[in-house]
Amino acid sequence: MRRGPIPDDDDAVPKKGKVVTTTGGWPELLRCTTTKPPPILLDELIAEILLRIPARSLVPLRNSVCRSWRTLISSSQFAKDHLRRSMAVDPALTHPLMAYYSQTYSYPIIGVFSVRSVMENPPHEPTKVVPYEGRRFRLIIGSCNGLLCLHDEERQDGFIISHRAMLWNPCTGFTSQPLEIGGLLSTCGFGYDHVNDKYKLFAILDKKSRMFTFGPKSTWRTIQDFSRNFRDGNYRGCQVNLVGLFVSGTGTLNWLFHRYLSFVWVLSLDLVKETFNQFSLPNRDSDDDHRVTPQLGILRDCLAVCYETKKTHWTVWLMKEYGVPQSWTKLAIIPHHPLLGRRPLSLQPIYMLKDVLLAIAPSGKFVLCNLNDGSIDIPNIDSSSDGMPKLCPLTQHSSGRIFELYHESLVSPFHFGLPSCSSEMRLIKPSL
After folding, report:
1. More confident position, 239 or 202
2. Which of 26, 165, 271, 298 could pair with 193 in a Cys bridge, judged by C-beta atoms 3.0 to 4.6 Å apart?
3. Domains of the chain in sequence order
4. Structure pTM?
């Protein structure tokens, strides 16, 4: 903004490229009309600049600037480079989000809300759930690199005629066309083979361990038997989670097992070698209540587990070096609190931002645990528009829902040869 007229004195008239001071006292660089046009940025420089922009901001730029930007932002290599940078250099480029579906009712809807907003918003400012509607009810099998793997059943005259899987990136809006997978999934998991650059789905079908690789020629292959790894010798126990937890950077799916009055361990599937391994979790005290089920999670990109300890508090552990039991490190001790409840589950760790832990308490509430001062808060999550009216509001209880944390990315199914579309899942706009 100009603070005054430019003086008429010839000595004060700015020459090309000369810094002058107007009567308002602001320094300005005034250029004459014969100045050469600014230089055109090199493609490599443009790419470096765009790699520093969050994924959600790049999506509208893809279709609104120019054809070359659309080609660049839509490319598989750019998506990989952006993902790599967001994971290793600048986590702010990818926003953590929570997706969920109804376990109780067959709503064809997946709700999504911002984890960062939940943890940063003041109590009076709610985090709103954004609903996405599909053509039918779908379960979330898992998430990896911004992709959600969904499972649905195709019915005819009330009978199930096929089971299908579909990949969906909520950030870009792209989905793969549903693929026939041949059966109901119980024990299963979805993850990324970083050595071979393949996205894989594991499942037990017809009592056999199968691996499905997403690509132009997607088929099931039989691999090492899952059940053999926990039904022999010392490894007889109860499987806590049916869906394997993917740990980024390790290329593994992980299932938690525990045995009453005994130890707890993890069964791990290496998606690169397609083989299983086992390792123990931190030892429990003899006076712990072993009927309280431990909970597995991922915090700070590490495998995490939460136990109830001595019937007075929960202990959260991090595995600093994956697969090495000696690397389990105590992260936090959280005393019992009336807002948290107790049995039959331990605290479920979800995400950490600085020194605040987002978790699902045994009471079923989302809670924010401040590890510095020990305070407990209930976040304000507005699920009134999530399209699931029979479920309890999230401010009161999370029951009836299955949750999956994911991070935004530009990775899309067409990057690895899957026919894609943008019509399978649509955003439900709020009514005015």
Report:
1. 202
2. 271
3. 45-88 (no CATH), 91-427 (2.120.10)
4. 0.84
